[in-house]
Specification:
The structure holds two protein chains of two kinds. Chain A is mostly helical. In chain A, 71% of the residues lie in helices and 1% in strands. In chain A, helix 6 packs antiparallel against helix 7, helix 7 packs across helix 8 and helix 12 crosses helix 19. The radius of gyration of chain A is 25 Å and the shape is globular. Classes of the chains: A mainly alpha, B mainly alpha.
C-alpha cells in the first residue's frame, strides 16, 4: 500500500522528480566487480610467476601496487557527474552488499586496519576495545541515527543539524566542530599511507604522502560521493582479499585449518608457553590506566591472552565507549546514509557495513596472534650472526630493529614497528615477496578509501555548510559542485602538508578524532532525533561545551599543565566531553523557549520512513517556486 | 476519493513545512498541498490513538522507541560491564581460546550483528503495520 499521496496529474500539479535509480547499472555491478576481482587475482598470480622466474622484485611490486591504484582512479573518473544530488548523495541510488563493503573499508581505513593490527600484536586482549567499540558504535548508529539522517536527506552531517534546528549558525558551528576530527583522521591516514608506501615502493615519505593524496583526490574529485562509493567498493574488495589471503595461507601452514579467525585459539596454549619461556611477566594495570603502543618500534612485553595488562578495567570500558560514540558520530556514516536508496535500505546497508567491519576486525587479532607465534617460535636460539631470514627482511624494510651487541637474540631485544605488523606476517611466514606487496596493497587500498572519504567529507562540509550556508537550497548547482571540487583539492594539499609537518602518532590522532567527534556531535545527534524539546540554543551550547571540553582536556593533558582528571588519559576525553555536552544541551534547552512548531513537525517527519525525502521535497518546492 | 485527498491534505501540508530555510521556502511549503507523509500513515495513527481498530495498538513512535530501547540497552549494558566479568570466564576454553577472549573478540561481533538484524526486521514490521513504510520501488 502506497503511503505517499503524491500530487495527481489531474490536479494540475507536476509529479515530483523521484531520485533516479540506475537500475541497469545496479544490476550489472556485481559482474563488474567480479571482473575487477578476477583482474586482481590474475595480477597477483602473474606477479608470483614473474617473481618465481626471477624478474626484479622492485618492478613486480611496482606493477602490483600501481595497477590497482590506477584502476581506482579510473573508476572514480568514470563515475563523473555534475548534478548536486549525484555529487553529494550518489543520486540516492546506492544499495546492496558491495557498497557496504566499500563503506566499511572507508570507515576503518588505515587506522582501523594497519595501526590496529599492530595494537593487537602488542596488546593482544587489551586492543579489543577498538573492535567492540566499533561494532557497538555501528549498532548505535543503525538504531539511533542512520534511518533518520537518511529520511532528512541533507548532504552532510552539519547540514542535517542545521536543517533539523533551522539554524544556520548551528550549521556553520557543526561544520567547523566536525572538521577537526575529520582533519585529524585525514592526517593519520596520510601518515600511515606514507609509512607503508615509503617501505614498499622505496619512495621518500613526503613523496608517498603527496602521491596518495593525489590519487585519492583524482578518485573523488570527478564524481564526489558517486565516485567515492564505486571506487571504494573496488578498494574494499582488494583490501579484504589482501587482508584474508596471507593470513589464511599462514594459518593453513601453521594449524592446517582455514578460517584463522576461529583457529588461532589452537595457538593459545603454545603462545602462552612461549611467552613464559621468554619470561613475559603478567602485568597489572591501575583501573584507569591506558597504555597504547606508539609509532616508534617497541619490544613485546605483554602476554597476548592476558586481560587488562596495559589497560585498566575502567580505562577499557571508557575506551570502548569513546570508540563507539566516536564511530556513531562520524560524518561519513551520514554521507553513506543519505546516498542509499531508501530509509529501509540505509538500515540494511549499515548492517552489511557492520558485518564487513566485524569480519575485518575479527581478522586482526588472528593476524596478530599468528605473527606473534612465528616471532616467538623463531627468535630464541637465534644469534646475531645467524638471523632468521624474516628478521633480515624486516630490518631491511625498517620494520624491526634489534640490538646487535647481544650475542644471542632474545625476544626482548627485537623491537617491532607497530604499523608494520600487516607486512610482518607474510614476511615472518616466509611467503613469496608478492604476498608482502599484496598486504601492502590491501593496506594502501583501505588507506586510499579512507583518505578519499575524509577529503570528500571535509570538502563538502566546507563548501556546503560554511561557504554556501546562507544560500537557498538548490541554487547555483554547478557552482556548489565546482566549489566542492576546489575544496577537495585544497583539503588534499592542506592534509598532505600537515601530514608531513605534524609529528604525531596516527593511532593517537585516530583516538583524538574519535573523542572530539563523539564529544562534539554524538549527544546532539541522538537528542535531535529522540528528544523533540531540544532547541537550537541547547544544541549550540551543547556542541560548544562538548567540543571545548574535549579539546581543552586533550591540550592540557598534552601540555602537562593539567593533572589528569581522575587519571583520565587525553585519549578518553570523550568521557568528559559527551556527558558535559549532553548535560549542557539538556539544561540550556529547558531554560530557553520551546522550539517552534515548524521544527517539531520536521522531527515528526524525519521519524517516519514513508514519504518523500525531506531535503528533496525542499528542492522540488524551490524549483517549482522558481518556475512559476 | 480524489476529493477527499484534496480536502485533508492541504492542512497537513501546512503543518509539516518544517524545513523552511527562508521566508521564500516557507511560503512555498505553505503552498505545497501534498508534501509530507502520506495520508494512510496519519489515518492509521489516528485510528490507533482512538483505539478504533479494536486492537491494543501502540502509536508508531512509542513502538519504535521500545524497540530502540530493547535493541540497545541489553548489548550496551552487557558490553560496558564486560571488563568487570570477563575474567571470571578464564578457566573455560572454546576452540582453544580462553572463553573470555573468544566472547570479547568474536562473540561480541556475532551478538551485535544478530541484534542488528533482528532490529531491522522488527522495525520493518512496525513500519508496515503502521503504514509508515516507504513505497516499494
Amino acid at each position: 500500500m502506497a503511503t505517499t499521496s503524491r500530487p495527481q496529474s489531474s490536479a494540475g500539479l507536476p509529479q515530483p522528480a523521484l531520485p533516479r535509480l540506475d537500475g541497469a547499472l545496479q544490476r550489472q555491478l556485481p559482474s563488474y566487480f567480479f571482473i575487477f576481482a578476477s583482474v586482481i587475482v590474475a595480477l597477483l598470480i602473474l606477479c608470483l610467476m614473474f617473481e618465481h622466474m626471477g624478474y626484479p622484485a622492485g618492478q613486480i611490486a611496482m606493477a602490483l601496487l600501481l595497477l590497482p591504484i590506477g584502476l581506482y582512479c579510473l573508476i572514480g573518473l568514470a563515475a563523473y557527474c555534475s548534478a548536486p544530488l549525484d555529487f553529494f548523495a550518489a543520486g540516492r541510488s546506492v544499495t546492496g552488499v558491495f557498497a557496504a563493503l566499500g563503506a566499511s573499508v572507508g570507515l576503518l581505513g588505515g587506522c582501523g586496519i594497519v595501526a590496529l593490527s599492530g595494537a593487537f600484536f602488542f596488546l593482544g586482549f587489551d586492543a579489543l576495545p577498538y573492535l567492540i567499540g566499533t561494532c557497538l558504535g555501528l549498532l548505535i548508529a543503525t538504531v539511533l541515527l542512520i534511518p533518520y539522517v537518511r529520511k532528512d536527506g541533507a548532504y552532510t552531517l552539519a547540514g542535517f543539524l542545521g536543517r533539523r534546528f533551522e539554524s544556520r549558525m548551528l550549521r556553520v558551528q557543526a561544520a567547523i566542530g566536525l572538521s577537526l576530527p575529520a582533519l585529524l583522521l585525514l592526517i593519520a591516514e596520510l601518515k600511515l599511507g606514507g609509512f607503508i608506501a615509503a617501505r614498499t615502493l622505496g619512495l621518500p615519505p613526503m613523496a608517498a604522502v603527496a602521491a596518495l593524496a593525489g590519487a585519492a583526490t583524482i578518485t573523488v574529485i570527478a564524481g564526489g560521493a558517486r565516485s567515492l562509493t564505486w571506487a571504494s567498493v573496488a578498494q574494499g574488495l582488494v583490501a579484504l582479499f589482501a587482508l584474508l589471503v596471507p593470513i589464511t595461507i599462514v594459518a593453513v601452514m601453521t594449524t592446517t585449518l582455514p578460517a584463522p579467525q576461529l583457529s588461532y585459539g589452537r595457538l593459545a596454549d603454545d603462545i602462552t608457553v612461549l611467552e613464559q619461556v621468554a619470561r613475559f611477566a603478567n602485568r597489572t594495570a591501575q583501573p584507569m590506566m591506558l597504555t597504547l603502543p606508539g609509532s616508534t618500534p617497541e619490544t613485546i612485553v605483554k602476554p597476548f591472552f592476558q586481560p587488562f595488562g596495559s589497560m585498566g578495567r575502567v580505562g577499557f570500558a571508557l575506551l570502548m565507549l569513546t570508540v563507539a560514540f566516536g564511530v556513531a558520530a562520524l560524518p561519513l556514516l551520514a554521507m553513506r546514509a543519505t546516498s542509499s536508496v531508501s530509509v529501509r535500505e540505509s538500515r540494511r546497508m549499515s548492517i552489511w557495513t557492520m558485518l564487513f567491519c566485524g569480519l575485518i576486525l575479527v581478522t586482526l587479532p588472528a593476524i596478530a596472534a599468528f605473527a606473534r607465534f612465528v616471532v616467538l617460535t623463531d627468535l630464541p636460539g637465534a644469534t646475531a650472526d645467524q638471523l632468521p631470514a624474516w628478521l633480515t627482511r624486516l630490518t631491511a624494510l625498517d620494520l624491526a630493529r634489534f640490538d646487535a651487541q647481544a650475542g644471542a637474540l632474545a625476544t626482548g631485544s627485537v623491537r617491532y614497528a607497530r604499523d608494520g605488523v600487516l607486512l610482518l606476517l607474510p614476511i615472518a611466514g616466509n611467503l613469496p615477496a608478492s604476498f608482502v606487496t599484496l598486504a601492502a596493497l590491501g593496506a594502501l587500498s583501505a588507506i586510499l578509501a579512507a583518505i578519499g572519504t575524509q577529503i570528500l567529507t571535509l570538502a563538502s562540509m566546507w563548501s556546503e555548510d560554511v561557504l554556501f550556508a546562507w544560500g537557498e537550497p538548490g541554487a547555483h548547482p554547478t557552482l556548489h559542485v565546482n566549489a566542492t571540487r576546489l575544496f577537495c583539492l585544497l583539503t588534499a594539499i592542506m592534509g598532505s602538508w600537515l601530514a608531513v609537518t605534524v609529528q604525531a602518532d596516527p593511532l593517537t590522532l585516530f583516538n583524538w578524532a574519535l573523542a572530539i567527534g563523539a564529544s562534539t556531535a554524538f549527544p546532539l545527534l541522538v537528542m535531535s532525533v529522540w528528544w523533540k524539546r531540544i532547541n537550537h540554543w541547547g544544541a549550540m551550547a551543547g556542541m560548544a561545551a562538548g567540543n571545548l571540553t574535549a579539546l581543552l582536556h586533550i591540550i592540557l593533558t598534552l601540555a602537562g599543565t593539567l593533572p589528569p582528571i581522575f587519571g583520565l588519559n587525553g585519549t578518553l576525553s570523550a568521557a568528559l566531553g559527551v556527558p558535559i555536552g549532553a548535560l549542557v544541551a539538556f539544561i540550556v534547552s529547558l531554560a530557553t523557549p520551546q522550539p517552534q512548531k515548524r521544527v517539531v513537525d520536521l522531527v515528526r517527519d524525519i521519524r517516519v520512513p514513508g514519504g518523500e525525502t525531506v531535503y528533496d521535497r525542499d528542492l522540488r518546492l524551490v524549483k517549482r517556486g522558481a518556475s512559476t | 476519493m480524489q476529493l477527499q485527498i484534496l480536502t485533508d491534505a492541504p492542512k497537513h501540508g501546512l503543518e509539516s513545512d518544517g524545513l523552511a530555510r527562508s521566508p521564500m521556502v516557507r511560503a512555498l511549503h505553505a503552498a505545497d498541498a501534498f508534501g509530507g507523509q502520506g495520508r494512510s500513515f496519519r489515518q492509521a495513527e489516528g485510528r490507533a490513538m482512538a483505539g478504533l481498530d479494536g486492537l491494543k495498538r501502540k502509536p508508531y513512535w512509542r513502538e519504535t522507541k521500545s524497540l530502540m530501547l530493547l535493541s540497545l540497552l541489553m548489548p550496551a549494558i552487557g558490553i560496558v560491564t564486560l571488563p568487570f566479568w570477563i575474567e571470571r570466564l578464564a578457566p573455560f576454553t572454546l576452540f582453544g581460546f580462553p572463553l573470555g577472549f573468544f566472547l570479547a573478540g568474536n562473540g561480541v561481533v556475532i551478538a551485535v550483528l544478530l541484534i542488528a538484524a533482528w532490529f531491522s526486521a522488527k522495525q520493518d514490521e512496525i513500519d508496515r503495520w503502521h503504514g509508515a513504510h516507504e513505497d516499494d520501488r
